[in-house]
TrEMBL record:
Gene3D superfamilies: 3.40.630.30. The lineage of its organism: Bacteria, Pseudomonadati, Bacteroidota, Cytophagia, Cytophagales. This is GNAT family N-acetyltransferase. InterPro entries: Acyl_CoA_acyltransferase, Bact_Acetyltransf, GNAT_dom. PANTHER family: ACETYLTRANSFERASE (PTHR43877:SF1), AMINOALKYLPHOSPHONATE N-ACETYLTRANSFERASE-RELATED-RELATED (PTHR43877). It comes from Hymenobacter nitidus. Pfam families: Acetyltransf_10 (PF13673).
Length: 178
């Protein structure tokens, strides 16, 4: 990874920029420049500003942003504390910069944050038909739990073009300082 990145927690003043950024990564034409696009699976936006604000207000939640030295947003990841685990969601890397290590850098920052919060494991959900994404997370230490979750039946998260379900994956975390 070439650029020096700074990780900061999102504030409510970042919501509009984040909504636009996340949608550009997951849906629409610009998302097709990267390998993590969902544009072939879902119509509509990935997130809206109101949903992002709700996510940021949730107990135990934060959204980490990765910016270049010039202040350009190149990545983000949502985290929320859940009964001994830290849920990781909406990992986003600028489409034109995917494959350069930013995603791994964000996962490391997320792991460090979770450890500081006392979480013993990370938990994610991934659309079951996203085989390349599932394989990437497995290379990062995540393992399938066998648990599935229905895809949200809410157009705020997109409109599926086919029936979708989410697979639950987890990764143990070493104790902070270990």
């Amino acid at each position: 990874m070439n650029p020096i990145l700074t990780i900061t927690p999102a504030a409510t003043t970042d919501v509009a920029e984040l909504a636009s950024f996340v949608n550009s990564v997951y849906r629409g034409e610009s998302s097709k420049q990267g390998w993590t696009t969902e544009a072939h699976l879902l119509d509509g936006p990935r997130i809206d500003a109101e949903s992002l604000e709700e996510m940021l207000r949730a107990d135990g939640a934060t959204l980490l942003m990765a910016r270049t030295e010039a202040g350009v947003l190149v990545g983000s990841v949502y985290l929320q504390r859940q009964a001994g685990a830290m849920y990781l969601g909406m990992l986003s890397v600028r489409s034109t910069q995917q494959g350069g290590g930013i995603g791994r850098f964000l996962l490391q920052a997320a792991d460090a944050y979770a450890q500081r919060q006392g979480a013993s494991r990370m938990k994610i959900t991934v659309i079951s038909v996203r085989h390349e994404l599932l394989a990437w997370y497995e290379r990062q230490g995540y393992r399938r739990t066998g648990e599935t979750v229905p895809f949200p039946d809410n157009p705020r998260f997109g409109i599926p073009r086919q029936p979708l379900e989410l697979l639950v994956l987890e990764k143990p975390l070493p104790a902070a300082g270990a």
